[in-house]
Write a structure and sequence with these properties.
The N and C termini lie far apart (51 Å). The chain has helices at residues 21-45, 53-67, and strands at residues 5-8, 14-18. A two-stranded antiparallel sheet has the order 1-2. The chain is elongated, with a radius of gyration of 23 Å. It contains two helices and two strands; from the N terminus they run ββαα. It has a domain at 21-67. The protein is 59% helix and 13% strand.
Length: 68
Amino acid sequence: MSGTTFIIDEKGKRHSAIVPIKKYEQLLEKSEELDDIRAYDKAMRRKQEFIPLEEALKELENNRKKKK
């Protein structure tokens, strides 16, 4: 990684890295994208039950009213 600075301990072992903010933002974005992919894959492995839109909207409205 260009521009990366490593912080080492007294034995010369790397334990931290300082990266340019642009690279950090890229890494963060890729990490979030990977989290989304994993969540999608997990959701797709679950058994899915489909309900009509009208029923779903009723459930949402009832849940919203209960929270008030």
